Amino acid sequence: MRERGRRTRGVVAVVAAAVLGVAGCDAVGGDSAAPSESAKPSPKPTPLWDRSPGSVAAVGDSITRAFDACDVLSDCPEASWATGASPEVDSLAVRLLGREGAARRSWNYAVTGARMADLPGQMAQAVRREPQLVTVMVGANDACRRTTSAMTPVSAFRADFEDSLRSLRKALPKAQVFVASVPNLKRLWSEGRGSPMGKQVWKLGICPSMLGDADALDAAATLRRNTVQQRVEDYNKVLEKVCAEDERCRYDGGAVYDYRFGTGQLSRWDYFHPSVNGQARLAEIAYRTVTAKKPLT
């Protein structure tokens, strides 16, 4: 009995030592998981939208070329809201990259008179620079035709915009896109029609579908202007919806369309295109959209 008791106590001691040994392994790590208080936090996922991109390329039409902002019937790219160097404008590129950075890492491929059909070609030029952000402002010329029947169909407008984004995505999958809404052309007509000089310049062919016969207020003229305005709104719906389908695209939420351009924000030569002051307002809208924590709605 005494011998059996000694053997029993020995077995208990071995089992106890084994249990303590396992507990000891847990305390110092061993093969088990470390205690929660010493675990490293999981890294935060990289956000899809970079609020401080390192380079900017601009595509679009005469607004992005700052047409009539500095002199009559001429481009003034240094005053461009997107990439200009003018301190009076403080362009999007300057705000994002600084003045020296903007000079080296921003490019303007917009063309005065361009329509949405021209955007795929401009985008092909832009992607060669491998920009981190591409700005798009186009559509006014699609509505500004000789007649309302000559305006770009909404379906064609959409197809060319989608084609442009596809080509960008194929070349630069992570490039970001800022899309500005088409301005309120009817409001620009309303603001500028009080200027005799502006109306004379309009007769040279600036947006005839909206600005032609500027003083006419009859039913036909009203219908014509309303038709143009509706087309602009349809274009903006396309820009918004197509952009929303791309996780690295931001639409301005209609901010350019809604902006109430006054005579101080319009060219003193044509009272239609943005002045230097108007270009600065566009730069503000773009910067606010690009740097927002969430997309504007």
Structure commentary:
The chain is an alpha/beta fold and 297 residues long. Helices cover 46% and strands 7% of the residues. It has eleven helices and five strands; from the N terminus they run H-E-H-E-H-E-H-H-E-H-H-H-H-E-H-H. A five-stranded parallel beta sheet has the order 2-1-3-4-5, with helices on both faces. Helix 5 (154-171) runs parallel beside helix 9. The chain is globular, with a radius of gyration of 30 Å. The model is unreliable at 1-37 (pLDDT under 50).
Distinctive features:
single chain; 297 residues; five-stranded parallel beta sheet; disordered N terminus; 11 helices; alpha/beta
Quick take:
By secondary structure, this protein is an alpha/beta fold. Helix content is 46%, strand content 7%.
What's the shape?
Answer: globular
* Total helical segments: 11
- How is the main sheet built? 5 strands, parallel
Strands ordered across the widest β-sheet: 2-1-3-4-5
Helices and strands: which structural class? alpha/beta
Helix proportion range: 40-55%
- Name the beta content range: 5-15%
Q: What are the secondary-structure elements, in order, as H or E? A: HEHEHEHHEHHHHEHH
Poorly predicted spans: 1-37
Distance between the termini: 88 Å
Mean pLDDT: 88
Based on DSSP secondary structure assignment, what is the total number of beta strands? 5
Over all CA atoms, what is the radius of gyration? 30 Å
List the helices and strands and how they pair.
Elements: H1 2-27, E1 56-60, H2 92-105, E2 106-108, H3 119-127, E3 133-137, H4 140-143, H5 154-171, E4 176-179, H6 185-192, H7 196-202, H8 208-211, H9 219-244, E5 249-251, H10 255-258, H11 276-291
Parallel strand pairs: 1-2, 1-3, 3-4, 4-5
